[in-house]
Each structure stands twice: as C-alpha cells, then as structure tokens.
Amino acid sequence: MGPIPSVPAHPDGQDLPRQFASREALQAALQSLFPQAPGPLSPIAGGRRAALERLAAIEPHRYGQTRNALAGAVTRLSPYIRHGVLPLAEVRDAVFAWLEASGAPRQQGEKLIQELAWRDYWQRLWQQLGDGIWHNREPLKTGHAPESYASALPEDIRHGQTGLACMDAFSNELSNTGWLHNHARMWLASYVVHWRRVQWQAGARWFLQHLLDGDPASNNLSWQWVASCFSSKPYIFNRANLERFSGGVHCQACGAATAGRCPFDASYEALASQLFGEELEPAPHIPARPDTPLPGELPAPSPALQAPVVWVHGEALGPANPALLAHPDRPALFVFDDALINGSEESQGLSLKRLGFLYECLLELPLTLRRGDVAAQVLTFAKQHGADGVVTSAAVDPRFAAICAQIATELPVQVVVTTPFVPLEAPVDLRRFSRYWRRAERAVWGLLRPQNP
Prior knowledge:
Layout: H1 23-33, H2 48-56, H3 60-66, H4 78-82, H5 88-102, H6 107-129, H7 155-158, H8 165-177, H9 182-195, H10 200-210, H11 216-227, H12 239-246, H13 249-252, H14 255-258, H15 268-276, E1 309-312, H16 322-326, E2 332-337, H17 338-342, H18 352-362, E3 368-372, H19 374-384, E4 390-393, H20 398-408, E5 413-416, H21 433-445
Parallel strand pairs: 1-2, 1-4, 2-3, 4-5
Helix pairs in contact: 3-6, 5-6, 6-11, 6-21, 9-11, 10-11, 19-20
C-alpha cells in the first residue's frame, strides 16, 4: 500500500484502521467495516499517486478525435476530479502544459477543456438547484404520462440479465468496476428510460451507488437530458450507432442480435414511432432555466481561529484541499457518513467500490478516519483537541451546508474556497451550457500563457 502518513490514534476507540498489508487486506477490512456495501473493490485504485499517473498519460488531441468510441483515448480522470484528488484547475493546467510542451495549436486541446467545463457547469447549476436536481426540470417530451414509468429498476437490468449483450455488458462493467464510458452511460440510460419505461430517478440512484465518479449533479442532469425533461427531445440510439462506437463487439456475441430480435435494430424514425408514437431524433443538449429555491446559506464568516480542527469531506480528498493547506499542522478528520453509506428509501447506499476508492484516497492524507453522524463526529473530534472552531473546504452539495449549520450551533465554522476552474463574475446565465460557455470560454483560454513566437 506504500507509506502511510503517521496519525496518532485517540483512546476512545472510534478511529478506523489506516495500516494494511495489501489491497486484499484493505478489501477484507472494509467488508467487515461496511458489511451492507455490495461488491468487491474496484480495479481502479484511489489516491493521488494513481491520479497523477493517469494525468501524465492524457492525450488531448486523441481525446478530441476518439472520445465517442468505447476504445477511444478517454482520460478516466473523472473519479479523481469528482473527489478533488485532482482539482479541476489542475487538470486544466495540465492540458495547457501539454499544449505548450508539444507546440500543438489550441484546437487540439479544446474538446478536453470543454469537457472539464461541463463539470464546472454542472456544479454551478447544482448550487442553484440544490435538491431540485432530483425533480424534472421540464415536462417529458415522450408523449407518455409520468405515472406510466415504473419507479423501481428491474432486477434483470441491475444484474445484467436482460439477454441483450450490450446492456448486460454495461451493467456488469458498472457493478464490477464502478466506471462506464460516457457513451455507454447514455445508451444504458436510454434503454432504461425509453425501452423499459422506468423513471430516470431509479437509474440515477443505481448509477450513484456504483460509479466512482458518482456526482449527483452531472449524473442526475445527464439522466434528465436522456429522459427529455432537461432537453428538447428524448435521447435514443440505434444498433448502427452502437456498433459504430463500440466496434460491434457486443452485437457479434448477442443471441438477440443474431436471432433478429435486437430492439435497437431500426432507423431512428422507426424507433421514435415505436417508442413515442411519432418521429423524434436525438436531442441537442439544451439545459433549461432552473426555478427551484436556492439551497441554504453557509454560516457567516467567523473571526480568525487560532486552534481549529480541519474537517475533510468527500469533495476535496487531495493535498490541494485548501483547508489542509491553510492549517497543515492542525488535526484533520474525515467521517464516513452512515446516512449515505446505509442508504434510505431515496438512496441505495454506496457500494464497496465507492467506499474503497474513498478509503484509498484518504490513506494518502494525514488525517483521522471515523464513521457515524458527520456533525456529531466533527464536534467530538474538535472537543478532544480543544479546538476553537472547524475549518473546511467549500462544496455545493446542500447536505454540506446542512452539516456546517449543525456544527455552527456549537463551534465557529470557516469555509475556505477552492481555486475555480474559471473565475466568472456573477451572475452567470446557466439556462444553457452554450450561454455559460460563451462567457467561460474566453476566460478559460485567457489563463493560458501566450506561446513563444
């Protein structure tokens, strides 16, 4: 597992283990700690070292040319970006550095920079919508009533037993690795919502249970785009599209395809008529204006703290965490949130893949690990260290603001802002990505140093 930062244990017995002889030992320990979490560890390792290896291997020009193909030169950086192991600004700068070192024209990095911008856009939109990301942004454009969609994900989809080689392969890859190519996510989501007539929320919860990069904003709003409640038309695909971007590997081994029973083997016009009773084509990505109340405000800034503790949360699991940088010598804590791990009627909890990825990221940081109620554990930790407050890094999840408010009833809370992907003065028009990008594009590329003549 490599060297582990030394963190003194507290005598109260609440601390989670940090020393493991191997990855197999880590998996065994996590299966004991979180017996309700399904599955093994992901083959994708967590942590800064693994993230930097992937970052060093990016090929922005090939990404732009091949990103839609399952075998394309995608970066697979999303789990590390989602949890702040690689801040979005750091990946942006890595693309800039590649352009400068290679002498390539700016156009060869544009697609990857724009993909990073989508992450920034989703986060800004989440900050506006709060928990509204779980509700339809617009009426469905499928011609079907909302109540005609099933509320639960069928078990054959969940377990990869639909009899369709492509869908079963995507389902199994999701549950076994915690990662899926973006095109596969779109195909699978379209099948769930349009062919099987299941509510997008059921599919979104399923994805969040397993995806290492499971971010509620990008996940839910992308499902809504597929479903047509955040776009002008439903997203559908056909067999020709799938074969083109998958290399046909699934169709060659599919009994349904060879027997002439492939549900996707038709023109778009025929599929639209079959699914919706009218001719529809794949929709452009046009988000709508949010209209839900804003999430709760964070606690007001407190006076300078002399002896705080640092609360590290799942949005900032790298050494660039601004709270850790501001107080490198103060005790730090991460709490595995039992409410998220165990799940509820609205959530299916987290798989062992997700928990293991988080754990591996955390083992590279000098902090204490605990589990339970987050606010209660942070307050207990602060009292154990005689702290005069809590410092943490900013996050847009409404749950973060609620936890900060709980902590602030007993101790001051200071929230340190992270370096943005692109600095934009408010207000920012988020009705469509194109409107956001119209402002952000020039600002992003303005950060790139002019190349020497």
